[in-house]
Amino acid sequence: MLRVGIYGGTFSPVHAGHVAAAKAFMEQMWLDVLYVIPTGTTPHKQMDGEVTAAQRLRMCELAFADVEGVIVSDMEMRREGKSFTVDTLEALAGEDRRLFLLLGTDMMLTLGSWRNPARIFELCYPVYVRRESDKALDEQIVQKIAEYNQTYGKVVRRIVTDPIEVSSTEIRTAIRAGQGIEHLVPARVAAYIEENGLYQ
Fold first, then answer.
1. What class has domain 2-166?
2. Which residues of 169-184 are buried (b: 16+ CB within 10 A; e: fewer)?
3. Using CA atoms, how far apart are residues 160 and 187, in angstroms rounded to an integer?
4. On the CB side of 49, how many CA atoms lie within 13 Å of its CA?
5. Mean pLDDT for each 10-residue chunk of the chain (200 residues)?
6. Domain boundaries, the chain
7. Residue 118, C-beta contacts closer than 8 angstroms, at least 6 positions apart
8. CA quadruple 29, 34, 39, 43: dihedral positive or negative?
9. What whole-number distance in Å separates Cα of residue 48 and Cα of residue 15?
């Protein structure tokens, strides 16, 4: 049984927190392969129109170039219309594989409101990683995991890693302010952003 991880997101830009979460995900879920899938047209977030889908894809390829077992896929970008997680899971599902879906805390807490959450839970094992250290969310997380277990019959597991409190929004703001981002994103991504004048 192949253990397949799925990590989606806008990745605009991909940053050190994304890479650290992906590595911890692979290690703790014993993944054979991890698909990193930048979204096409996302139903959840307003995209930053200054950066193309191809550029977001390229930044992911640069960020994960040295991480063994990672496949950066443009499958959601090639799909017409909005990108829904359930469609991606359907495309990757198979009798010979077990799927694991990595979510940030915010996405995990809203998973029940996504398109066809029952099917999502049928197709994969959702896993979340905390990218913040806000203790105020602890009780909400426990309640939501219990709710999912009761409704869908699966426990949402946590990837344990030190929170890297950095966001793509913060990075875009720093670039526009003329601040350095070398400590926030992989070196190749920082160079690509500078070379192409992204997020100015």
1. alpha beta
2. eebbeebeeeeebeeb
3. 25
4. 0
5. 96 94 97 96 56 94 97 93 92 97 94 97 96 79 96 95 84 94 95 95
6. 2-166
7. 152
8. negative
9. 16
Token couple for 23 = 């590595």
Please classify residue 136 by burial: count the beta carbons closer than 10 Å to its beta carbon, then call 0-12 exposed, 13-18 middle and 19+ buried: exposed
Q: Omega before 13 cis (within 30°)?
A: yes
Residue tagged 């909400």 (tokens)? 140
Q: For 41, which DSSP code?
A: B
* Distance from C-alpha of 178 to C-alpha of 166, rounded to nearest angstrom: 17
> What confidence tens digit (pLDDT) does each residue in 150-161 have?
999 999 999 998
Gyration radius of the chain over CA positions: 17
End-to-end Cα separation, the chain, in angstroms: 46
**What global pTM score does this model have?**
0.92
Listed in sequence order, the residues at least 6 apart from 1 whose beta carbon sits closer than 8 Å to its beta carbon are 96, 97, 98
What does DSSP assign to residue 112?
Answer: G
Tokens of 8: 């989606």
Angle at 88 between CA 87 and CA 92, to 5 degrees: 120
- The Cα–Cα gap between 165 and 133 comes to 8
Determine how β-strand 124-129 pairs with β-strand 70-72. Answer: unpaired
Q: Which two tokens stand for residue 187?
A: 């070196």
